[in-house]
Amino acid sequence: MAELKIKIPEDLKRKMEKFGVDWSPAIRRMIEREIQNLTEIGRIISKSKMTEEDALELGEKISKSIAERFKKHVAGDRR
Question: What is the pLDDT of residue 16?
Fold first, then answer.
C-alpha cells in the first residue's frame, strides 16, 4: 500500500487530536468519495455536447437571473 504524507496547520492538528480518532481510514474514505465524484463528473462531461462557450453563456444567464431575483427581494424588503 502506498503512503501519503500531508501537511496540516497546527490549529487543525490540535482540533483533530481532541477527538482521538484514527484519521487514516476517515481520510482514505474521503479520498475514495472524491475519486468517485470526479469519475462521475468525467462520465457526465464526456457525454455532453455543450461547448465551453455554451457553458459560459449559460453561466452568465444564470448569474443575471439570480441578480434580478436578489434585486427584487431587496426592493421588496424596503417597502
Answer: 94
